[in-house]
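Case study.
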Amino acid sequence: MARIYNFSAGPAILPEAVLQEAQANLVDYKGAGMSLMEMSHRGKEYDAVHTEAIANLKRLMGLDDDFSILFQTGGASMQFALVPMNLLGPGQTADYINAGAWGKKAIKEAKLIGNVNIAADTSKEKPSRMPKDSELKLTPGASYLHLTTNETIEGTQVKETPRVEAPLVADMSSDILSRPRDFAKYGLIYAGAQKNMGPAGVTLVAIRKDLLDRSSETIPAIMRYKTHAAEGSLYNTPPTFPIYIVMLVTRWIDAQGGLAAIAKANAEKAALLYAAIDNSGGFYRGTAAKEDRSDMNVTYRLPSEELEEKFIKEAASHALKGLKGHRSVGGVRASIYNAFPRAGVETLVSFMRDFQAKNG
Amino acid sequence: MARIYNFSAGPAILPEAVLQEAQANLVDYKGAGMSLMEMSHRGKEYDAVHTEAIANLKRLMGLDDDFSILFQTGGASMQFALVPMNLLGPGQTADYINAGAWGKKAIKEAKLIGNVNIAADTSKEKPSRMPKDSELKLTPGASYLHLTTNETIEGTQVKETPRVEAPLVADMSSDILSRPRDFAKYGLIYAGAQKNMGPAGVTLVAIRKDLLDRSSETIPAIMRYKTHAAEGSLYNTPPTFPIYIVMLVTRWIDAQGGLAAIAKANAEKAALLYAAIDNSGGFYRGTAAKEDRSDMNVTYRLPSEELEEKFIKEAASHALKGLKGHRSVGGVRASIYNAFPRAGVETLVSFMRDFQAKNG
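After joint prediction, the assembly is written out as follows.
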């Protein structure tokens, strides 16, 4: 098989070793005579998967027993609603940072549920950037401050955790497990799996246990974090196969040396690509402010939309797939998540040099 | 590989041919150089899967363009909340049938959201049974009548669609696609995939389009059926791999001859097993009223709990797995969904005869 270089923004590339192990076990899970997909979520084989996934995630994120790890569904989009439904009481206000498309979606949904204060809005600025702590207009006694740690469309990433009094709630869908963070300083972290952690169909929620009591018993039981924490994410049938893949990905991260080693590799891959952009004499132009550049989604433009279209098309014929920028902003976007190999970045850099030589 | 007979109530057995095709394509999806799990949900390969799954489901269920097929997550448990959130307006009343554990859960969640009238309650009766139309105490002008077409724990199944004025809303999680039904007479049908249709992680919703306008714009966008119908279930990232398996299962149903052929095979399997119970001279006792016996979940008792425990243990050593009744009711439960082979039922019947000869 000729594996292509998959720059898709999500669902995204998975480690080949994970796919191979899943394939080997797909029909007959470890000699059980059935697939993991066919097994009860309350049986011993699946229980081992579920328990290991939770333990590995807690260890990788450095979270202790003050936190519950939940497996939910519906991606970040469902959390945009569940977070304020659970954590934002009547008469209270939640602060939100708007630094891009995903932050904006979270805000739109939260406004249907409660009072929202926009603590900072950099979403229309070019180059794209994340606001600094000093710019935040915070509400005294806010229920929480919501941020998006990586904006996939704008290509920006929060490098340092904001220092604020309110509990931090973060959408980490596109950079979870890509670098060490002081995860324990957050009150609630959520992430759709389909970028750095697994396939579409499972959402990670890590919640500080003292926040569980905020869930009102007037909201549906299925929508309360407390319900799922009390049942170890087995209140209803969890998406067992996607969780299995997440578990295999956590093992793969361990095999790479953990988050520190992953972060180093990610930073090197991103540096290679940003250097190619910065050293192109202006032919390639990065769209994010340098200090906020994402290690996950590298966004850039070419001198014209025609050249961008040609670039994306020719790249695809060199097995460099998924480079088209989001339809709302255009340009080029190279998503280079954890599982994306350095060799693929080197191939892209080489292609960029050739393309410029022919079209510059 | 020695494939065992998997009587699990859900997640449950899948057609072996489906598992084998998924396995063959898991790492390299049809020569694309990547897994389907790694592909954008807006790319052409996944689009073909998504579109075919919807088309096949509509055809199998005989639904025309008056209906939208949605792929959601969270299983029936999430629908217990979303149905009244979307369809039950303030000041209105919804009628619910309580004929078992699943109906009861739907009612509990709906009561948090709006006015609920229990149109019939047979949930405590023994033998278990479904109420007749003539027993229903309906609310004039009710928003809808909710029923559970198959109660997995009680082993009962609705054979004829109730004739009522209000739109019918049905949880068909455990018998969807197991027999022809007049699906077009329902206003909304929902079903977690993990019993008859695919793996855990995707939920089918078929909704009559005129009901979409009931969704209030005050509920979160992600929770409105209207949002998902407008975007063809691509408003957020759908659970792509589980939907792929559902698509393969619909092809497998077609290959069996469609729902009529599936229903015939299911009825024959169930008849074999119920005959073994009825002809055991009382050693095995069915727990459901004969006219309401489920073709999907065959529930029965033995003379003592000790014998039940022994039966389940010895059956497992004959590769007959997952026969333990739900923890809330005990006894034996043989779940024989679409994909469960007739040979497995014959093996169970033979084992039952031997077990009775030794222990009767």
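Observations recorded in class. Chain A has a mean pLDDT of 97. Chain A is about 35% helix and 15% strand. We will return to this complex in the next lecture.
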